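Quick one, T. Sequence first:
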Amino acid sequence: MNKLSQIISNYIETNNLTLREFADKCSLSHSYIAKLKNGFDPRSKHLIHPTMDTIVKLSNAMNIDVKELLLKSGYIDNNDNHILIDTQIPRDLKEIGIEYLELAKEMQDKEIPPEDIKKIISILKKDGK
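Structure tokens:
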């Protein structure tokens, strides 16, 4: 079980939620939450790598800051907030970078589609070079 799996399991248990109730709270399917809770897909036995959109939905549902969830899950380093190079890191998080997480969260809260957020951040990164 990975750190994110433990966080999800603890949250569900502490709040006396069913898997379906937590899934509804996250706006994710209960089968996907089950995979995240287990840390792998039971059919393929592959590890589950949540997207940044999923991380944001989880953090909103658990009422914790995205950065805090990333720290607790081990996706970013606690000392200097550098993204850790690890197979557990969500693929799109590697590309976004920690300095853009707060911006991405704010845009997500304003219901900007994830594809648009990625495009905006990509443009900002190009302009920032």
